[in-house]
Amino acid sequence: MTDSPARTGTLDARYSRPDARPSAWAEVHATLETAGTYWLSTVRRDGRPHVTPLIAVWDGASLYFSTGDREQKAHNLAANPNVVLTTGDSALQGGFDVVAEGAAVRISDPDRLASLAQAWVDKYGEVWRFEVRGGDFWHEGGGLAGVYEVAPARVFAFRKGDDRFAQTGWRLA
Asked: Residue 141: pLDDT band by 50, 70, 90 thresholds?
């Protein structure tokens, strides 16, 4: 994916070196597509935050993750669908981090779920092969899991390193 006028980010000079340039959307896309682990932030009913690592797939426009209905994140999403998904490199002196904000929407269309199940296998291997059952994913090791789509409304990229610090933001439709 290449940058287009709609995908041109805005550099935030407050958190960037004076000579920094905005990060390219193509780098954001590549990071979201290839990341192994993401961190999902949700909000509990009482307002306390909840953060958990998980795996996800990116299709170029949305991130997808799954969770069992009895897990804390599923309870949180039922009350408040607004989430933040982050991924990147934990090193301070280098790397590239991405933060995606949006609302998580549960997906139940069997054809879409079948396509996403294959995307999980393509990215993570056979150990993450899901069956589609009744509008959910099913896995022998974990039972049923709802699948959620997050089409980011805002994305931030953080480039790190002594001579590279830059924060770029995008507002997406």
From this structure: confident
